[in-house]
């Protein structure tokens, strides 16, 4: 069976019908999400707007409220959009509510495109890229798609090289073709425009360790699946062997 992979860029690119969608946000939303799951989070609820995030917090008072605008933690939130901060927190069984500029918005858009087919929507940073590619290969191997398989990759930053580098890496992994290697993707992430504010010692509001998390390849443990839900979209971690 052949696999047709398209790469789009931005929050709301036109998305054709596909058998699977992967929304990529390396800096930082889905690196942050992966660290929260690594540290025991049960689920991540997605909010497109700040007032929706506060409304979710009122409905789920025990949840951890996280997110950013202009890459800065929002007043009244527990956390920013920082993988380094998440790495210090025990999320055991807890819910994280997340609102971010690029990754969350692109995911909400992809969920709408995927709904008519009931196609899976994965979210990923580079840290989870191997697991995301493997999830798609397993869909194919399990024969769940019987004709030509169509996969849509969404590099969520409208202009960023970090998400495009990750998209090219995932495409190569899915197809088993030559593509950028881990070191090349790491370098493109570190050199991306979005990374520079974090790496600038004169901008202490930004944490350089966030880019260390975002640029590092993690173990192939679980894929992150975004799902529609009656009370709002959410992300769960799906063990690869499940
Ligand atoms: O907070 C972030 O890392 C970004 C905003 S920016 O690209 O760094 O300005 O939001 P995200 O939705 O994680 O891309
Ligand atoms: Mg981003």
Labels describing this entry:
single chain; 242 residues; alpha/beta; putative 2-phosphosulfolactate phosphatase; 10-stranded mixed β-sheet; 10 strands; 36% helix; 21% strand; globular; binds the ligand O=C(O)[C@H](CS(=O)(=O)O)OP(=O)(O)O; binds magnesium ion; ComB-like; Probable 2-phosphosulfolactate phosphatase
Overview of the structural elements:
With 242 residues, the chain is of the alpha/beta class. It is 36% helix and 21% strand. The protein contains nine helices and ten strands. Helix 8 packs across helix 9. The mean pLDDT is 96. The structure holds ligand L3UKIRZJ and magnesium ion (MG). The site of the ligand O=C(O)[C@H](CS(=O)(=O)O)OP(=O)(O)O has 13 residues, from loops.
List the helices and strands and how they pair.
Blueprint: E1 3-9, E2 20-24, H1 29-38, E3 43-46, H2 50-59, E4 64-69, E5 72-73, H3 83-86, E6 95-99, H4 103-114, E7 121-124, H5 129-141, E8 149-155, H6 161-175, H7 182-191, H8 193-199, H9 208-214, E9 222-227, E10 234-239
Parallel strand pairs: 1-8, 2-7, 2-8, 3-6, 4-6
Antiparallel strand pairs: 3-10, 4-5, 7-9, 9-10
Residues 25, 27-29, 68, 71, 81, 100-103, 157, 194 line the site of the ligand O=C(O)[C@H](CS(=O)(=O)O)OP(=O)(O)O.
Strand order of the largest sheet: 1-8-2-7-9-10-3-6-4-5
Gap between N and C termini:
23 Å
The percent range for strand residues is: 15-25%
Q: Tell me the count of domains.
A: 1
User: What's the mean pLDDT score?
Assistant: 96
CATH class designation: Alpha Beta
Order of helices and strands: EEHEHEEHEHEHEHHHHEE
Give the number of helices: 9
Write down the overall geometry: globular
GO molecular function: 2-phosphosulfolactate phosphatase activity; magnesium ion binding; sulfopyruvate decarboxylase activity
Catalytic activity: (2R)-O-phospho-3-sulfolactate + H2O = (2R)-3-sulfolactate + phosphate
Enzyme class: hydrolase
Cofactor: Mg(2+)
């Amino acid at each position: 069976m052949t696999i047709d992979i398209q790469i789009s860029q931005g929050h709301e690119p036109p998305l054709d019908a596909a058998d699977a969608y992967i929304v990529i946000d390396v800096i930082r939303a889905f690196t942050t999400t992966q660290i929260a799951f690594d540290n025991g989070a049960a689920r991540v609820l997605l909010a497109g707007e700040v007032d929706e995030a506060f409304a979710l917090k009122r409905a789920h008072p025990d949840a951890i409220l996280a997110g950013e605008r202009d890459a800065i933690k929002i007043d009244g939130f527990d956390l920013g959009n920082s993988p380094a901060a998440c790495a210090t927190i025990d999320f055991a069984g807890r819910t994280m509510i997340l609102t971010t500029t690029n990754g969350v918005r692109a995911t909400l858009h992809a969920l709408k495109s995927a709904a008519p087919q009931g196609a899976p929507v994965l979210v990923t940073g580079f840290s989870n890229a191997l697991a995301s590619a493997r999830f798609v290969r397993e869909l194919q191997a399990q024969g769940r798609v019987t004709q030509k398989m169509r996969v849509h990759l969404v590099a969520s930053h409208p202009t960023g090289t970090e998400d495009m580098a990750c998209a090219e890496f995932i495409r190569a992994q899915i197809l088993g073709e030559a593509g950028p290697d881990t070191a090349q993707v790491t370098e493109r992430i570190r050199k991306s425009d979005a990374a520079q504010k974090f790496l600038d010692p004169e901008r202490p509001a930004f944490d350089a360790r966030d880019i260390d998390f975002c640029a590092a390849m993690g173990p192939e443990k679980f894929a992150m699946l975004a799902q529609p839900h009656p009370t709002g979209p959410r992300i769960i971690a799906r063990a690869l062997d499940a």
